[in-house]
Amino acid sequence: MPLHHPPTSFSAANADGKNPINFLYFPPELVAVDHINTAIRNCDANKTLVALMKPEAQLPVVHPFAAAVYQTELFNLQQQNARYLAHDELSIAVEMLSAVVLLNQALGSKDILAIKNHLRNPSVGFNNVEDENFQRYADTLLSIKSEASSQGQDYLSWNDVQNCIDMVNMQVQEENDRIVAVSYINEAIDQGNPGKTLETLLLPTVKLHDVNPTNARHYQDVLHDAKVQKCKESHDESAVLWLDEIQKGINDANSNIEKAANLALGTSMINNCLEKHDSQPVLDILQSPKFGLRVVPECAETYYKNLLEAKNLKTKEDSSEGPWLKLIMKNRYDYYYNVETGESTFVPPEGFIPKTSWLTSEEIQTIVGQVTADYNREQLWFANENLILQLQALARGFLVRKSYEERKGFLQKQEPSVIKIQASWKGYKQRKSYTDRLRVLQGNVAAIVKVSCSMLSKVFSLWSFFQNEEIVKIQAFLRANKARDDYRTLIGAENPPLNVLRKFAYLLDQSDLDFQEELEVTRLREEVVTKIRSNQQLEKDLNLMDIKIGLLVKNRISLQDVVLHSKKLNKKSKNQVEEMVTGDKQGIKGLSKERRKQLEAYQHLFYLLQTNPMYLAKLIFQMPQNKSTKFMDTVIFTLYNYASNQREEYLLLKLFKTALEEEINSKVDQIQDIVTGNPTVIKMVVSFNRGARGQNSLRQLLAPVVKEIMDDKSLLINTSPVEVYKAWVNQLETQTGEASKLPYDVTTEQALEHPEVVNRLESSIQSLRTVTDKVLVSIFSSLSMMPYGMRYIAKVLKNSLHEKFPDATEDELLKIVGNLLYYRYMNPAIVAPDGFDIIDMTAGGQIHSDQRRNLGCVAKVLQHAASNKLFEGESAHLSSMNTYLSQTYQKFRNFFQIACDVPEPEEKFNIDEYSDMVTLSKPVIYISIEEIINTHSLLLEHQDAIAPEQNDLLNELLKGLGAVPDVESFLGEGAVDPNDPNKENTLSQLAKTEISLSLTSKYELQEGEDQDLKGLMIKTKRLVVDVIRTQPGDTLLEILEIPASAQQESEHLKVVEKRAILDSKTPEKMKHSQSMLEDGQLPIEQKKRKIQRNLRTLEQAGLVSSANKYQEIINEIAKDIRNQRRYRHHRKAELVKLQQTLSALQSKTAFYEDQVNYYNTYIKTCLDNLTRKNSRRSIKLDGKVEEKGSKKLKHTSLKYTAARLHEKGVILEIEDLQTNQFKNVMFDITPGEEMGDFEIKAKFLGVQMEKVELHFQDLLQMQYEGVAVMKMFDKAKVNVNLLIFLLNKKFYGK
């Protein structure tokens, strides 16, 4: 039986075991092919894939992930081949499909190298693949693939890929053809043949647009010029035009031709109108775009008239005139236009003769432009007639003044001659008068004798009259007036006379009263500084006590911890504080002799730090913020004695200014950083000015109005709709005695739906405005009470930000100033007046919640107004106040502007570079040994950053000091018994010992140092004062040149002896340098010689001049007299201020002592309660309290993976570590020996990385302060609340 059955019968026959033909043998390969065709026809992709992958099919590799592709493509191929695919067809198709599948996979992963390799694969069978185009193929395929994916097609077929290859090949071919065409164009341009150029421009391969064959000549010219220009600019003679440049040349040429044709047509139309004397169309033609002129309709007649006159001036010679107009395009290309035929050309026409009787386009444009300019100028004169009259008046005035000055100059030039003439004439008249009078007297001798006797009698009677008491008073009054006039001359004249200065030189002497006042100021300043330091320490301890009692209430620490801290607090408040206030401060003499030199070196160091703010400013920013804050609170304010006098306030402000400018320049990248961040200097300035010295300006500024708000019991402000709603519901239930049907929990929107809530809210807003206005009046009217330091730093802040951000507006700068003056300085004191000494509080007293809410609402409104921030979003229900906020902001804006208008510290405090050299006493600071050592250590640690220059004075002083001493070596041998078992505690107590340092400069003028001009000037002034007091004269030069008389020498000797007696009584700290004392003992003539030597040195330095008889040094002495008077007034004012400050500090100390007593009473009550309840608790021998049944602290460690802690919410994230890696991090939490201490170790893949000590009390402190997230190991962010919960649960059973 022949086997000619259709192939489909193989599968049917073999499938039935009972078929009689199943004994025949069919090759496995054909059976597999039969199965494949069947699966393809059934459209089952999975079965098709299985059939294709059978080994019997002997087909190329099949990729399972592309089953759908095989099914689709093979099905289509099967339909094209009589529904059956033979083995060879399947083999070829599968091979190509597998290759295409892999190519699609590479396209999906955007693997360029794989794409190229698959394209090169010969099995894929792509045609026309060029090696140099592989990158283009890959890029285009990726683009097509991306577009297909966006349309839902995830697969590119073989045909898609082949079409892409053909398309790329075609694009490359077109590009090559275009490049060739561009080279042809450049060659044609170089040949200068317009026809050839046009032929190349019209090549279809180059694809240029808008090529007009009639413009061939102009194309040639424009493209040739463009090419020449490109060669010139690129300095390359072989440069060629690119395609876009050629297209631009064609566009420019077409534009030129169009403009030239319009201009020629317009010119022709204008001339035709002129010939026809038709003026009507002229204006319309000129206004058309053909001329591109700015035409004024009012000048229409003038245009026509001037154009007609110009045309009439043109000569008309019929024999020589032609029909052609010639135009020049862009001052380069000629254009010819036939006015009769309308023909145009770029080549001079044969027999070219211009039409000379017509106006050219240039002439028309010039005439029209001139008329328009004349009209505009005329209108300008009319519009500015008043200004012109003023200008003429100014010019005439100038000419008159010039004439007057010339005449005046002439007269001044002839002044000597005029004086001679006048003197001669006056002399003649006086001689003639004298001769006439003498002649009269000689003729009346007898009568003169009688008159003389009568006059003598009247003189005697007048003498007796002037001996009257009233006359003496009048004379005293006149002398006093003269003295006042002299003093006004001294302080007001630019160059006060020497005779006036001599009268007031005695004011420079120091009296016993001066010394007494200076000593009293020094004593009070010491008490104030010491009191401030003790109060600060006491306040810190009280705050810590607050926290500990709070933790005790939460049962987080034991009662014993609170009792121990209370004992320390009592000890400090009773013993240590008293010792700090009343105990004598140790100075240099208080230490051993061998340590005196080192302490003097520290005096020089602290003087340099105090007077040169750059060192401390740099040091602040070199330290971490927590350390810098502590450093500022202790050492810096101590170094400046809490600004207890003008000199130290001046220097402290200089430090603030320098540090603020440094911080803005180095750390502020955007102007808002000052607001959003917490700048160190701003924080320091605000903290200091809020009352660090006990001078609480905020109390004076805000206390009256805050007290008025708190005392108003009827005032109830609530701007929260939900709270107002709840209060209303509670009131309803109280009044009716029935449960309200209204829901209790509502949203803001739901609460505002009730009219009663809206009415109550409006009432609160009205009250809020009234109260806010009172606070505003208090603030705006009390600008003078605001500390000068705050206002000056606000000025520095504004100027520094303006310098760094010059584009910032005035509003932006004033908002930053407002953030400092209001938000940081005033706002906290309004919100919490009890925390800033604005109001007096008794120990344990608290502000009522209603009072607190009233103040908070006022502060919120003021905060929004100061920053010009309107009520929006969650506060939209307060939007009715937005107009009020805007108006208030304008008031705040003016307030901030005025606040910044303050003089510089030099002017405010009257301090200059000589101030330290002429003050009566040396500056003294009171500082502990521990603070000295810490400062020395910090300076050495950051020396390179603070003083990078090798020859810096700070480096020299630090080198002289050497290494940082410890307390024992600082005090010297014998200060502590080496066998003392409590040596460490003793040293710790001694480290807190305060000593007084009299600050001096190491680089003051020494004997014979004439280079120090400041010191030389001071010495010379002292010598000049000594000389002019005993020897009078009109000028200093005259006094120095005339020898002193014996009487003057004697008077000078008395002055020297009197000064020696006064110096012997002067305290050591207030004595002048030895060289000045020795100069004061010199005889007057030696002083004069020394003055002359010093003046020559000062003149060489340009400080004085002999040309004006050394008036400069006289002016400096006058300035010293004025400053001495001011200094005495300031000192008296400072005495009063220090006494007030000390009184305020003592009141504050009394309040703190009341607080200590209150805490003692509370702790005693706790202990008593503990004793009564000993049945439930027992006190151990170590004093710790143990709750019955409570679990003891587990000492076993806990281990958690970071993934587990992340699930619990304890770990939020770990920097540089993905969440899926948290399982590799292990945290080991082990309790320490002390209660509440934990050690946490971190391991990664079993390798220990880091460990950290954690104090449970610190966590509670952070929770108390509202800190929700903390960093651990500087990498892991931890939820503080959940960590506390975990530790409580696992270690405390809570």
Automatic annotation (TrEMBL):
<dbReference type="InterPro" id="IPR023152">
    <property type="entry name" value="RasGAP_CS"/>
</dbReference>
<dbReference type="InterPro" id="IPR008936">
    <property type="entry name" value="Rho_GTPase_activation_prot"/>
</dbReference>
<dbReference type="InterPro" id="IPR000593">
    <property type="entry name" value="RasGAP_C"/>
</dbReference>
<dbReference type="GO" id="GO:0005096">
    <property type="term" value="F:GTPase activator activity"/>
</dbReference>
<dbReference type="InterPro" id="IPR001936">
    <property type="entry name" value="RasGAP_dom"/>
</dbReference>
<dbReference type="Pfam" id="PF03836">
    <property type="entry name" value="RasGAP_C"/>
</dbReference>
<dbReference type="Pfam" id="PF00616">
    <property type="entry name" value="RasGAP"/>
</dbReference>
<dbReference type="Pfam" id="PF00612">
    <property type="entry name" value="IQ"/>
</dbReference>
<dbReference type="InterPro" id="IPR000048">
    <property type="entry name" value="IQ_motif_EF-hand-BS"/>
</dbReference>
<dbReference type="InterPro" id="IPR001202">
    <property type="entry name" value="WW_dom"/>
</dbReference>
<dbReference type="GO" id="GO:0051015">
    <property type="term" value="F:actin filament binding"/>
</dbReference>
<dbReference type="GO" id="GO:0005516">
    <property type="term" value="F:calmodulin binding"/>
</dbReference>
<protein>
    <recommendedName>
        <fullName>Ras-GAP domain-containing protein</fullName>
    </recommendedName>
</protein>
<dbReference type="GO" id="GO:0005938">
    <property type="term" value="C:cell cortex"/>
</dbReference>
<feature type="domain" description="Ras-GAP">
    <location>
        <begin position="634"/>
        <end position="867"/>
    </location>
</feature>
<dbReference type="GO" id="GO:1903479">
    <property type="term" value="P:mitotic actomyosin contractile ring assembly actin filament organization"/>
</dbReference>
